[in-house]
Specification:
By secondary structure, this protein is an alpha/beta fold. Helices cover 36% and strands 25% of the residues. A hairpin with a 2-residue loop joins β8 (197-200) and β9.
């Protein structure tokens, strides 16, 4: 049984999608064992508590510097024996010390088709604002392994979503979540939990 540690900063809709997929049998051989937020007011923590899942707030504000915060975050993951770290709307850069402790065991959901609209500055609504300002017709979401870069790790799954005329960033964000994020994040977790994902020469191989 793969033990997931889900890191989230806000409402936790992707966390909810994961929990729902486990309940529905869409994700097998995995369980959410820990939820961590950098924001004590994050509704994601309440979602976890409602399911009886350990929920922790580890905020940079509570530590003398970033290094101490990073050490506390890593310690919490290790003490809870997390197998796979899932970044589900976690708006804090994951430091190299955690990436190195969990090689190819950290995944992230990004609301665009990487390599488009990703990297520094592209998070949350900023992604969808960028999509609309560029006038592209198709966007989507990507699940990828996390490396020491920003949105540069090996891609696991992607799903395209149409951009509609008249979309606002908020409307497009919701469509991308519903049509892509909430589908491919659980799918990627299920693949990993069942040993169907490997990384070779920096690329993901999926064995069905």
């Amino acid at each position: 049984m793969l033990k997931l540690g889900v890191l989230v900063s806000g409402g936790g809709t992707n966390l909810q999608a994961i929990m729902d997929a486990i309940d529905a049998g869409v994700i097998t051989n995995a369980e959410v064992g820990l939820v961590i937020s950098n924001n004590k007011g994050a509704y994601a923590l309440k979602r976890a508590e409602n399911k009886g899942i350990p929920a922790r707030c580890i905020s940079p504000k509570d530590y003398a510097d970033r290094e101490e915060f990073h050490k506390a975050l890593l310690a919490e993951l290790q003490e809870n024996q997390v197998d796979l770290v899932v970044l589900a709307g976690f708006l804090v850069a994951v430091p190299s010390m955690i990436v190195e402790a969990y090689p190819n065991r950290i995944i992230n959901i990004h609301p665009s088709l990487i390599p488009s609209f990703c990297g520094t500055g592209y998070y949350g609504l900023h992604v969808h604002e960028g999509v609309l300002s560029r006038g592209v017709r198709v966007t989507g979401a990507t699940v990828h392994f996390v490396d020491t870069g920003t949105d540069t790790g090996p891609i696991i799954l992607q799903k395209a979503v149409e951009v509609h005329q008249g979309d606002t960033p908020e409307v497009l964000q919701r469509r991308v979540m519903e049509e892509a994020e909430w589908k491919i994040l659980p799918a990627a977790i299920d693949l990993i939990a069942n040993g169907k994902v490997s990384v070779q020469d920096g690329k993901v191989i999926i064995n069905n």
